[in-house]
Amino acid sequence: MSDEALILRPVCEDDLPLLERFLTDPEAMGPFQWMGWADPHRFRRRWAENGMLGEDGGQLMVACGAERLGFVGWRKMSTWPKASCWNIGAQLFPQARGRGVGTKAQRMLVRYLFEHSPAVRIEADTEVGNIAEQRALEKSGFTREGVLRSAAFRGGRWRDLVRYSVLREDIEAAGCQEG
Q1: Where are the domains of the chain?
Q2: CA 73, CA 88: separation in Å to the nearest integer?
Q3: What is the pTM of this model?
Q4: Full DSSP string of 48-104
């Protein structure tokens, strides 16, 4: 990564082949995200429909200058009748992992979602074995809430997830953490 600042930006059409790698390349996905082969045109259809920025969720590219490092995404989750929150995630290319990029990108996404939606809660889930992601979420201001037993199916078996959350008031109390 260069000395340029990390940014989140809308997905462009020329980003789609890179994003499609996440659907067709197990190495790009990493050990905790590969769920098997997926529709390689899913991103292209969503981009054509709404630029991957909809009312119920979206995706933004994580970039540093011209270097595309991965993406962050969010989706609306129902928490109660007439109540919802965002659930977020990040997927980075192998060369961007382990360098603090995910932590910073998730922190930036949290700030973006609280600034541009009335959400009061943002959640994130990761497998119990994904210690790096747990650290990134905690560094991003998330609080570990608990373990969801047998909540995700990957690699032929059910896996436990750790649920994290950050509330609008957490970020306000911290003085809008710097990216």
Answers
A1: 6-173
A2: 6
A3: 0.88
A4: HHHTTEETTEEEEEEEETTEEEEEEEEEEEEEETTEEEEEEEEEE-GGGTTTTHHHH
pLDDT, tens digit, 9 for 90 and up, residues 119-177: 999 999 999 999 999 999 999 999 999 999 999 998 899 999 999 999 999 988 776 44
Nearest to 126 by CA among 116, 136, 140: 136
The residue among 96, 169, 101, 93 whose CA lies nearest residue 140 is 101
Question: Mutual orientation of helices 131-139 and 101-116 as an angle, nearest 10°?
Answer: 50
Q: How many CB atoms lie within 10 A of CB 89?
A: 19
Element (H, E) at 161: strand 157-167
Beta strands at 57-64 and 67-80: parallel, antiparallel or unpaired: antiparallel
Give the Cα separation of 167 and 179 in Å (integer).
17
CATH (residue range 6-173): 3.40.630.30
- DSSP reduced 3-state for 28: helix
Task: Give the residue carrying structure tokens 């609280």.
Answer: 114
